[in-house]
Design a protein that fits this description.
Elements: E1 5-10, H1 16-23, E2 30-35, H2 37-46, E3 51-55, E4 66-68, E5 71-75, E6 82-86, E7 95-99, H3 104-117, E8 122-126, H4 130-136, E9 139-143, H5 144-149, E10 156-159, H6 160-168, E11 172-179, H7 186-197, H8 199-210, H9 214-224, E12 226-228, H10 231-246, E13 258-259
Parallel strand pairs: 1-2, 1-3, 4-13, 7-8, 7-9
Antiparallel strand pairs: 3-11, 4-11, 5-11, 5-12, 6-9, 6-10
Helix pairs in contact: 1-7, 3-6, 8-9
């Protein structure tokens, strides 16, 4: 009997277009575990799972992984769910509370504050509680569902994907499917394909979970985010690794090898 592929995945709304098939049990031969993004990477590193939807920076930190080419969570411009909120101007930030579930975004905010605003503040990991974070720090990084629901009235807010685009002219890839050698990429495309067919249901359930309107979530999941990656996304990932390595956040700027699947062309309209 063939053992199932063990997959650690994120149960954030922004991942549902990729993970819906796994979450609903429609992909045979897969055993799914839901985690926060950082825990997905930790399970994969410890060898507890065969694949994970992990922060993109972690694919550069865990030896021996391959990236499933053509799939991920990315944004070309505004992302809406990865935000730096601050009580002070960004060029005066001294301390930042970082959502404990974040790793790629935590690295990204370090790079943006240094390269865009000339700041190298102290960073402190914290639970995603906006008022508690800002009670002790100048600024806070929020990601995923907590960022979508946060009341940011009176704060200065940076959308990190917008800032990355302004800095580099490229999209930002927040998360990728990473697999151990020998794990076939097909199930990850099957799950994506199921999610594509069920996008209306995904939007309805996202509205129920978050309390946000369906039109907002439709724009968020279909326009602000994209889950089919192409050459421009790979260029953005390569630039992220280059800057992260320059800041000492990863050991090398080299892209991990890809699983052998061709890039998915962008679907217009």
């Amino acid at each position: 009997m063939i053992s199932p592929i063990r997959v650690s995945l994120v149960d954030f709304v922004n991942a549902w277009p990729l993970t819906w098939g796994f979450l609903k049990g429609t992909v045979e031969g897969v055993e799914s575990i839901t985690d926060i993004p950082s825990a997905c990477a930790d399970r994969l590193k410890r060898g507890e799972v065969d694949a994970g939807l992990i922060p993109s920076i972690e694919a550069a930190r865990i030896p021996g992984l391959r990236i499933v080419r053509g799939l991920g969570i990315a944004s070309r411009e505004k992302v809406r769910s990865v935000l730096l909120a601050s009580k002070v101007p960004f060029d005066r930030v001294r301390t930042v509370a970082v959502d404990s579930s974040s790793r790629s975004s935590a690295a990204m905010v370090r790079i943006l504050l240094a390269d865009r605003y000339g700041r190298v503040p102290e960073f402190h990991v914290a639970a995603p509680d906006l008022s508690e974070m800002l009670a002790h720090h100048d600024a806070t990084l929020l990601i995923g569902d907590p960022a979508l629901r946060a009341d940011l009235t009176g704060l200065l807010v940076l959308d990190l994907a917008e800032e990355w685009r302004a800095l580099t002219g490229l999209p930002f890839v927040f998360a990728v499917w990473a697999v151990r050698p020998g794990i076939p990429p097909d199930p990850f495309f099957w799950s994506r394909d199921f999610g594509r067919r069920k996008i209306d249901r995904i939007i309805r359930e996202a509205a129920f979970r978050t309390g946000l309107g369906a039109p907002f979530l439709s724009t968020y999941l279909v326009e602000n985010l994209h889950h089919d990656l192409e050459e421009e996304d790979e260029a953005g990932l390569s630039e992220f690794y280059r800057r992260a390595a320059a800041h000492g956040l990863i050991p090398s700027s080299d892209l991990p090898p890809f699983a052998g699947i061709p890039l998915v062309p962008r679907r217009e309209g």
